[in-house]
Amino acid sequence: MKKVLxxxxxxxxxxxxxxxxxxxATFLGVNSCxxxxxxxxxxxxxxxxxxxxxxxxxxxxxxxxxMGEALPNLPDAPxxxxxxxxxxxxxxxxxSLFFSSVYSHPIIKDVFDPGEQxxxxxxxxxxxxxxxxxxxxxxxRYESVIELHRSLSRCNLVxxxxxxLHYDRWLMQYLMSFKHLAPQEDIRLLFxxxxxxxxxxxxxxxxxVHRHKRKMVPGDYKEKLAPETIVALxxxxxxxxxxxxxx
Length: 247
What we know:
Elements: E1 4-8, H1 14-28, E2 31-33, H2 41-47, H3 49-55, E3 59-66, E4 82-87, H4 90-104, H5 116-125, H6 127-151, E5 156-159, H7 160-165, H8 167-175, H9 188-197, H10 221-224, H11 227-236, H12 238-243
Parallel strand pairs: 1-3, 1-4, 2-3, 4-5
Helix pairs in contact: 2-3, 4-5, 4-6, 6-11, 8-9
């Protein structure tokens, strides 16, 4: 069975991808595998995504596979599978990372455990210092994303920005990667189900730094970062912004 592999990044609504994949799998009567579920999390972190994808043929849907997590994460013959990549503007990703790291991300031992003093220090140093301190690491992560995308002969590229602003169109494109799992390859019922199930997921509400979904509107970095920080990010992520048409 051809497996669906969904790649994405931290701070690109990956928890929504987790929920959506589980809903899709349940609707289609297949099994899903996620690092955010209780059943596979330890095994994925211990053995890598690549191993889990190769050894769990009872599962049809894998993800969210976050770049930089549980490596290696690419199977030996990726073109034998149906691959999705869900992207987001790196400037918004790092901006969101600051608020998550300082305010809202739960402490998880050996995964995210900065300590209260570190969180206070990030807050005292400010968002611009935080963002700039993470720029090179995320630049390398996006370079690996581009390398992955270029290596695949077929990849369904979808974007966070379309998901938030045009969920119906984004969903239809996303579900095309699951078409082979649907009866007669007809995804119309699946589309209607997921559209209704998550119809309120992207309602714009007032910003709350303590909420996981703090602020979904694309382009938040323009409000939160100093002009000189934005210039630095535009330079560092120049090839990435061009590649994914964020320039």
